[in-house]
Amino acid sequence: MKIQNSSPTSVYSRPSVGQTTKGGAARSVGTGTQGAKRTGGTTDAASVSLSPEARALAASGGVNEAKVSAIKAQVDAGEYEVDAHQVAEKMVDRA
Prior knowledge:
The chain is mostly helical. It is built from 3 helices and 2 strands, in the order ββααα. It has a domain of about 30 residues. It has a two-stranded antiparallel ribbon. The protein is extended, with a radius of gyration of 25 Å.
């Protein structure tokens, strides 16, 4: 049995950044309203709200630089070990 490698004649491919589409429009990336719907000169952007816990963490700085550095050094030295049993327990507790 022979399988032929044939491709459809009308395959759609998205143009890369800087290339133009069939109609001549250029594709852009990175606008602040990516994915937003443009209607009548205005942009309907999605809104995001943070939980009170997320706001508190953001306000506190929330990063223990000394602990991060110590763990990073252990990882770099190949000495950091993860207790899989403890991780599994925490996953079940939070579910």
